[in-house]
Amino acid sequence: MSINQILAIFKARWLLFAAILGVTVVAAAVVTVLLPKQYTASASVVIDLKSPDPVAGMMMPGMLAPSYMATQVDIIQSERVARKVIAGLRLAENPDTKIAWEEATEGRGTVEDWLTTLLLEKLEVSPSRESNVLRLSYAAADPRFAAVIANAFVQAYIQTVLELRTEPASQFNAMFENQAQQAQVRLEKAKKALADYQRATGIISIDERMDVENARLAELSSQLVGMQSIAAESRYRAGQASNNAERAPEVVNNALVAGLRADKARQESKLQELQARFGEAHPLVVETKASIAELTRRIGLETNRVAQSMGVNSSINQAREAQIREALANQRQKILDLKDKRAEMDSLLREVDSAQRAIDGLQSRLNQTDLERQATRTNVSVLKSASEPIEPSSPKTILNIFLAIFVGGAMGLLVIFGLEFVNRKLRTENDLDGLVDLPFLGVMPDAKNLGNLPRPVSPVGQLLSLGSQPRLTSSKA
Question: What is the structure's pLDDT at 64?
Answer without folding.
Answer: 55
